Amino acid sequence: MPQPTTPTHPTKIVITDCDHDSIDIERAVARAAGVELVLAQCRTEDEVIHAAAGADAIVVQYAPITAKVLDALPGLKAIGRYGVGVDTLDVAAATARGVAVCNVPDYGTEDVSDHAIALAVSLARGITQLDRGVRRGEYSLGPVQPLHRISERVFGVVGLGLIGAATGRKAKGLGYQVIGSDPLLAPGDVTEDGITVVSFEELIAGADVISLHVPLNQHTHHLINGDVLDRVKPGAVLVNTCRGGVVDTEAVAAALTDGRLHAAGLDVFEVEPLPRTSPLLELDNAVLTPHAAWYSEESYAELKRRTVENVVEVCAGRTPRNILNIEVLMGSVSA
Fold first, then answer.
1. Given 272, 282, 298, 327, the catalytic residue
2. What is the rounded average pLDDT of the residues 204-225?
3. E-assigned strands of 183-292?
4. pTM, entire model
């Protein structure tokens, strides 16, 4: 992969917040490009404004980047987001102010889809519940019955972007019949991976596994709610590896308790870390992981490197590999 172009003027990049063990990878990218890199740990708008004063670009993990922040940083050229989602960034405000917004949409495609499949199969075979029973000295299938053959089950993918498509492809490899829904695709279409596109309502009613792969926005907030859960197929399981706010936590806990959902595998939550008072913690048919789906040694390194490379490229007057608002660079980008 070509190295980022060295900017023609001194450049400062501020990492507004980062909970990684080290930023050695980011420092190596910055050093190779002749860029100053500064690490802060911001949580509020005012902290970002203070830490990023004079910066040409910022890299953000969770800190809020709002119109107020952007107005206070008039020299800002680029924002790089550690990850795929940009729900903490006001992309429209950045675009209006000529600030490039970059993410890394494909760094964890294999990892997140692997995790979704792992959760789905664990739920399909009752692995976690059986393990807990063995540890208690119980040798019984009772808590997980009925179990069904995977090759006779329907796997529903909600959102057929990179990760959703990869998840569907892997589910097909296991023998599932795979269907998918996506607002950009028409029911009746068949994707290049052989996934039959159906309406969201048809998927909810017909899928034995419902795996979520959508961004969090005003249209997908609480996409899975009490009303939807009233219409799921009996015995269905829910898998969420995208964003916690896509599901109504209380509604899912209620559906797991009263049997509308057979089980759920959740890697993301509306509040993270998951509060110790959450009813999910008391449910034996919920498999919970700590927002870990994205992680592998390979994805971790790729995320860190490419996030900084993107903003370095913008500062150098070039088009980065990943940008959400390319229009801000039109007319000011070298070939």
1. 272
2. 97
3. 196-197, 209-212, 237-240, 263-266, 286-288
4. 0.87
Residue type, 95: T
**How many whole angstroms separate alpha carbon 42 and alpha carbon 28?**
22
Task: Please check whether residue 310 is in contact with residue 316, taking contact to mean a CB–CB distance below 8 angstroms.
Answer: no
Mean pLDDT of all residues in the chain? Answer: 95
Sign of CA dihedral 159, 165, 168, 170: negative
Catalytic residue among 243, 260, 305, 306: 243
Catalytic residue check, 243? yes
**How far, CA to CA in Å, does 26 sit from each of 89, 158, 295?**
21, 34, 17
For the residues 255-261, what does the mean pLDDT come to?
97
What is the Cα 304 distance to its own chain's centre?
Answer: 16
158 bridge partner residues: 181, 212
Residue 272 appears among annotated catalytic residues = yes
CB 69 within 8 A of CB 16: no
